[in-house]
Amino acid sequence: MAAMADRGKPKLKIAETIRLILREFESKDAESLYDLFQDKEVMRFSTGTLSRDETDLWLESQIENYKTLGFGLWAVIKKQDREFIGYCGLVNFPDILGRQEVEVAYRLKRPFWNFGYATEAAIAVREYAFERLRINRVISLIDPNNIASINVAKKTGMTYEKDVMLEGYDYPDRMYSISKDGT
Asked: Mean pLDDT in the chain?
């Protein structure tokens, strides 16, 4: 049913960088997402790998977020060969320590780690949030052992703010943040 709804409707390109295109997800991305979510190392700092059904639900939730929030997580595509390499985008948190927050989140397939793609995509998403959506502040919530993601957050200009305990977690994540004015 979702595949039928996607036919003939062009997907919105969110951002373009020197090497990447960020665009809305569509139902045809399910298999690529499933491959991403099946890699135990990619999912190491998450809740674990996802089944096909869980992947489909995740994908549906992102497509719904575009309608209800006007943003979500977006497919990251290499310009050179149009290959899906992961996702990067925005996640809404209605209440973190009494404050609504919008997170810049990213996850890439392992063969694309350590080439600067995550940083490139995260900077584009940060700028999209500030310029297009007029969001004044963005955060990233990162497992304290995920040094690679912490480095990406720092390269996007974010600084460590505090540790936060999210519902359902048994340890705190580190919260990095940046405001539109650079603070």
From this structure: 92
- Structure tokens, 97: 């320590």
User: pLDDT tens digit string along 54-70?
Assistant: 999 999 999 999 999 99
Determine the Cα–Cα distance for residues 144 and 118; give it in Å rounded to an integer: 18
Within a domain: 40 = yes
The model's pLDDT over 108-143, given as tens digits with 9 standing for 90+, comes to 999 999 999 999 999 999 999 999 999 999 999 999
Q: Residue 168 pLDDT more than 80? A: no
Q: Is residue 41 part of a domain?
A: yes
**In the β-sheet with 13-16, what is the strand arrangement from edge to edge?**
13-16, 20-23, 73-78, 84-96, 99-108, 137-142, 173-179, 159-164
Q: Do the domain assignments include residue 6? A: no
Strands 84-96 and 173-179: unpaired
CA distances from 121 to 1, 42, 153 (A): 30, 17, 11
Instruction: Report how far apart, in Å, the C-alpha atoms of 45 and of each of 51, 52, 99, 110, 154 are.
Output: 17, 20, 24, 13, 18
In the block, residue with structure tokens 């929030």: 69
Query: How far is C-alpha 92 from the chain's CA centre?
Result: 11
DSSP letter (8 states) at residue 3 = H
Query: Into how many domains does the chain fold?
Result: 1
Alpha-carbon span 75 to 94, nearest angstrom: 23
